[in-house]
Inverse folding.
């Protein structure tokens, strides 16, 4: 009886996560936010409650999935080949992301240039005069740097000196490093002593996915409650003022996500429409929660169970990529730097464009585990080498962040899944397990 009820809830969850319901929820959330109804402030606690529910099983899921992936790679004897392909596609994807971000942004700023009128509007937003931009902003940049400076630097950011502290604080890089070492240790002791815990880990993984299916029953409500207040925070006036930046980011993101889905379509030998429909649920969840890591279970299930991608590269890379590789932040930093440069009259040379991509890539790793205002601190390391004002960029990025952070998460999910799909070229696809 209990099994039948669980199966019924899982089937109901899959029905609720159909693309039609997801699209309707997104449209309703955007419309409510655009209308800026007063009651939207009461939706924010509901959205935060839904995110808290999703966070319940993220760490247990990672603790089961990563050791299982390590075992699968080591036992199959293809670990080095799969890892090599993943690294190769990661490098290629990063280079393409940088190139498209620069070219698309430059094209947008060429056809939609910033002018003195835009500078006056930005100055008016911060209480300045019409002739200059007054950066007496309510949030002191010094306090922001102090907040970011509290984090450990260098290799200590990924070394789990206290795994229990890392688990309780949600320090994703340290958890990933520990789980890789832990998984390798479990494999070696299994070979030596003949005792295995991987059956139990597989059971834990299945239990976490089942719990996510239960929580997905609330996903339409969660999407509306998370999207609407964030859209309302931005407001139509700020959106029109930051139009060139938002447009450049949207064009770049659309190109990257579309290209990524076409690559997955080629790698998995399915139609692009099937890829789009399959990814509707994880991408909507990414946009709603603005948290890439929370989408790992749903994305992994989409790749292996729905699209039947090879399991080994997906299980090995998706949890790591979602936690560590931040393509969305690379795009954000590049577009933001070009926007501020265009606003202040700075023209980037070819060498500076190359350095801009490099600085954006390196700075993206400093955003791991950070969201909102602290996640914008690394932008200073991208702007200041070119003499661009971080104090000018910070309030502008804060205003746009409710929208940009949604799209950043969508980029992270799509491109990391694309790398897993491309790394599986030539491997046998996952078998379809009958219900």
């Amino acid at each position: 009886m209990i099994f039948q009820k669980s199966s019924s809830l899982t089937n109901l969850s899959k029905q609720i996560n159909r693309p039609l319901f997801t699209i309707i929820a997104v449209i309703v959330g955007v419309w409510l936010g655009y209308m800026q109804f007063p009651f939207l402030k009461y939706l924010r606690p509901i959205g935060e409650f839904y995110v808290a529910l999703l966070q319940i099983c993220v760490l247990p899921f990672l603790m089961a999935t990563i050791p299982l992936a390590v075992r699968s790679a080591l036992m199959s004897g293809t670990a080095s080949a799969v890892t090599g392909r993943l690294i190769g596609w990661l490098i290629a994807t990063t280079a393409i992301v940088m190139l498209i971000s620069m070219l698309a942004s430059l094209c947008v700023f060429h056809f939609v240039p910033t002018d003195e009128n835009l500078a006056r509007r930005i100055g008016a937003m911060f209480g300045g005069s019409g002739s200059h931009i007054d950066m007496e902003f309510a949030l002191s940049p010094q306090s922001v740097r102090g907040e970011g400076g509290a984090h450990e630097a260098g290799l200590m950011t990924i070394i789990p000196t206290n795994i229990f502290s890392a688990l309780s604080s949600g320090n994703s890089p340290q958890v990933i490093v520990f789980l890789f070492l832990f998984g390798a240790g479990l494999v070696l002791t299994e070979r030596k002593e003949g005792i295995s815990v991987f059956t139990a880990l597989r059971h834990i993984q299945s239990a976490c996915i089942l719990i996510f299916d239960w929580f997905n029953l609330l996903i339409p409500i969660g999407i509306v409650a998370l999207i609407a207040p964030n859209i309302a925070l931005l407001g139509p006036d700020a959106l029109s003022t930051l139009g060139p930046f938002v447009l450049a980011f949207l064009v770049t993101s659309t190109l990257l996500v579309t290209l990524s889905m076409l690559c997955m379509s080629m790698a998995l030998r399915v139609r692009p429409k099937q890829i789009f429909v399959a990814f509707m649920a994880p991408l909507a969840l990414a946009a709603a929660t603005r948290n890439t890591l929370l989408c790992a279970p749903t994305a992994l299930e989409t790749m292996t169970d729905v699209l039947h991608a090879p399991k080994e590269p997906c299980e090995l890379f998706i949890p790591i990529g979602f936690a560590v590789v931040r393509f969305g932040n690379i795009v954000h930093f590049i577009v933001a730097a070009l926007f501020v440069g265009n606003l202040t009259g700075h023209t980037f040379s070819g060498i500076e464009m190359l350095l801009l991509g490099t600085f954006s890539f390196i700075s993206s790793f400093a955003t791991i585990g950070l969201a909102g205002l602290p996640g914008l601190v690394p932008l200073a390391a991208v702007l200041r080498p070119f003499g661009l004002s971080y104090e000018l960029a910070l309030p502008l990025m804060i205003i746009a962040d409710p929208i940009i952070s949604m799209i950043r998460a969508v980029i992270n999910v799509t491109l990391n899944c694309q790398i897993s799909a491309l790394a599986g070229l030539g491997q046998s696809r996952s078998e379809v397990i009958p219900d």
Notes: Confidence is low (pLDDT under 50) at residues 1-5, 127-154, 431-435. The chain has 20 helices and no strands.
